[in-house]
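Quick one: structure for this chain?
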Amino acid sequence: MTKVVVIGAGQAGLSLVAKLRSKGFGGEITLIGEEPVPPYQRPPLSKGYLLGDMALDRLYLRPESYFEEHQIDLRLGQPVDAIDVEAKTVRLGEDEVPYDHLALTTGSVPRRLPAEIGGKLGGVHTVRTLADIDAMSPGVAEGRRVLIIGGGYIGLEAAAVCAKKGMQVTLVEMADRILQRVACPETSDFFRNLHRANGVDIREGVGLDQLTGEAQVSGAILSDGTELALDMAIIGVGITPATGLADIAGLALENGIKVNAQGRSSDASIWAAGDCASFPYHGVRIRLESVQNAIDQAECVAENILGAEKDYVPAPWFWSDQYDTKLQIAGLNSGYDTVVTRRGEDGAISFWYYRGDTLLAVDAINEARAFMVGKRLLAMGKSPDKNLVADGNTDLKALLKL
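Got it. Here's what it folds into:
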């Protein structure tokens, strides 16, 4: 009987094993998770869950009964020690689990501050796991002072929650502007203004020199010499692919676990999907950090384990919720040279990224129609005239028929 082992019980891991069963796979499936809880949603952790608007059981992607009903051997709280590619086994302490196909859906890990600048002090938190949020939650309270390091989406979403909780929020971003790595200046401007309107002190072009305190963080010294008194700090300076097991096993790495278009690694019996995997896309190698990619790529890998020989062709999209504002992103903006602004009703706005006359991506802010039309245009390979996009009188749906 064919044995499939999946390491990483997050969104990608669950999507992979669920797809195997829904496609009629009758072999053995083992899903191994390092965390002691069943697969859960990560995006609501730093939003609804931290705010107290979402109960723990609503985070779970499936009830625990699902795994028994579908004959999935779910092993939780069990970090994998090693992969023996010759013997085709996975070692968990004293136990060895054999596999015919192994899938790595190990996700990513947050970047942390070095201990020498205060990264190990109490009250210094990252935003990644359920345990991270549970540890942070008691300190998120009205009147307390928090420093957020990093002006990407992780940092901005944390800032929004802390501000809504009545905290005194300072956010520092070492780059010239927030969201510099991932968005155009227009999107940065919108969210800078939004956060400042909600009382967040945003400081750009400013980094962190040192967190101070004895056992617990009590202050910070910024790169411009400013000293702040603090009750807690949140680190939002990005994530890195979790490739430790793959590296020890000798798999090829390139900004993650290097896989081909079908999700197969340099070892023919080992696959990878989700945040940890880099794959070919339009002549370059990319790695996508999104729920959509975790699901779609993992499902594609499941089909290929069953022999489909299907290339993964993503249609990237992302989202971010901050206060009552929803940002929806379609496409990848890498290489853009022009941004077209389109204004909608009630403050809705969208930014359309072009390279030459080719549409690359759309940032839609409280503008679901622009997001949906932009996503469909990208899927169809259509690039509407920039002047038509900018004209608020243009019916967006009409762009699909041009």
